[in-house]
Design a protein that fits this description.
Layout (H helix, E strand, L loop, with lengths): L13 H18 L1 H24 L9 H65 L9 H20 L2 H13 L249 H5 L16
Length: 444
């Protein structure tokens, strides 16, 4: 159409408008037929109601009430909406089923690809072992082969799932490639995240510096294993055996070590933030300079453990065995030691500010110059303990046993000693009793 024949103002002719409407209807029918049907039904109902009103020659609906006309209109609308909803739900259900099928197909494809990758890796490694003498005497050729094996192993581990990562480690271990001492295949930095090694025997395995975040090592035998500098964040080690394991500078933040056996393990400088060590055996373990802040060590065995300068702030050590443990200069701010056994423990210069030592056993403990300010020691046994020059200001010592305790130079200012077993001679040797409540309830 040229500009002369087009109506003024750019308005389309009726024929063109009908054609546009027809194209829109066809498009809607292709995209969403039910919505078009619903529109047509509504238009037909509107036309029919208008015709009825015209015949009555009264738009006040003399013969029929408003609700009667509304009822005639609502029923078809409800049916149409219901049909539309059912159709929509059916389409969504079909899409969900199709998506699940696609996901299952992808999973199967990934499984096949992972299995093929694993089998190819095993074939190549067996070839290096049997045909190229990977386990042979030290030589320049062996160094090259070891580097090849390491490169191939690291690449394969990045592409495998947790179960197959576990199979790779078992293969390397049983082949003697990651045994004690200097391993043939170095796994420092290896991706072993979420590796599944549940209840496997890895005695003396060398996984130094490996990334084992989220790995499942529950019930595994890792005695004398070298896991130093490894990342075991949120790893599962419940019931694992780590006797004499090398774990210095390891990260075990958020890890689960429930009832694990770490006897004589070396955890120097280890990070165990929020780790779960409930009922774990940590006897004779080296935890000096370790970070155990907010860790759960309740009912754990830490007898004769070395916790020198360890960070135990807000940790739970309730009912733990710390007899003869070395906690000198440790940070125990706010720690829970309710009912713990600290007999003969070394707590010299330790910070026990606001710590809970209610009913704790501190018989013969050395608390020389320790800070017990605002600590709770109600019902605690401090008999024969050394509290020389200790800070016990505002401490709660009600009902505590202080028979034979060395209180020379101790600051008991503001402390509560009501019901405590202590002699006047002992109190006379203290540095301060200002504002303290004495055993008989009197105030100083």
């Amino acid at each position: 159409m040229n500009d002369e024949t087009r109506p003024r103002g750019g308005i389309k002719r009726p024929g063109e408008q009908i054609a546009d409407l027809s194209r829109w209807a066809k498009n809607q029918w292709r995209i969403n037929p039910l919505s078009l049907i619903l529109v047509l039904i509504l238009l037909l109902l509107l036309a029919w109601i208008t015709w009825q009103a015209y015949k009555l020659d009264n738009l006040g609906f003399d013969d029929k009430t408003y609700w009667e006309w509304l009822e005639l209109l609502l029923i078809p609308i409800v049916l149409a909406v219901g049909a539309w909803w059912l159709n929509k739900s059916a389409r969504e259900n079909e899409r969900e089923i199709a998506e699940r099928n696609r996901e299952e197909d992808r999973r199967i494809a990934d499984e096949r690809r992972n299995q093929a990758t694993l089998e190819a890796y095993f074939d190549r490694m067996i070839e290096l072992l049997l045909e190229h003498d990977l386990m042979g005497q030290e030589s320049e050729e062996k160094k090259i082969l070891s580097n090849m094996a390491r490169t191939r192993t690291l690449a394969v581990l990045r592409s495998l799932d947790g179960n197959r990562k576990g199979q790779v480690i078992q293969f390397l271990y049983e082949s003697g490639l990651i045994g004690p001492g200097q391993p043939v295949v170095e796994l420092h930095g290896a991706d072993l995240t979420e590796a599944v090694l549940l209840e496997t025997i890895l005695h003396g395995v060398n996984l130094r510096g490996a990334d084992l975040r989220g790995a499942d090592l529950g019930g595994a035998d890792l005695s004398e294993a070298d896991l130093s500098e490894a990342n075991l964040t949120k790893a599962h080690l419940s019931g694992a055996t780590l006797i004499k394991a090398i774990l210095h500078d390891v990260c075990l933040s958020g890890a689960t070590l429930w009832r694990a056996n770490l006897t004589e393990a070396n955890l120097l400088g280890a990070i165990l933030l929020q780790a779960n060590l409930f009922q774990a055996d940590l006897s004779e373990v080296n935890l000096s300079e370790a970070n155990l802040s907010t860790a759960d060590l309740s009912e754990a065995n830490l007898s004769t453990a070395d916790l020198t300068e360890a960070d135990l702030t807000w940790a739970d050590l309730s009912k733990a065995d710390l007899s003869k443990a070395n906690l000198s200069r440790a940070d125990l701010f706010g720690v829970n030691l309710d009912g713990a056994d600290l007999s003969e423990a070394d707590l010299t210069w330790a910070d026990l500010t606001e710590a809970d030592l209610s009913k704790a056993n501190l018989d013969k403990a050395n608390l020389d110059r320790s800070n017990l300010s605002k600590a709770r020691l109600s019902g605690a046994n401090l008999s024969r303990a050394n509290l020389f020059a200790a800070n016990l200001s505002e401490a709660k010592l009600s009902g505590a046993n202080l028979i034979g305790t060395n209180l020379i130079g101790a600051d008991l200012g503001g402390a509560n000693l009501s019901g405590a077993r202590v002699t006047a001679e002992q109190l006379a040797r203290t540095k301060s009793l200002s504002g303290a409540t004495l055993a008989d309830g009197t105030k100083k």
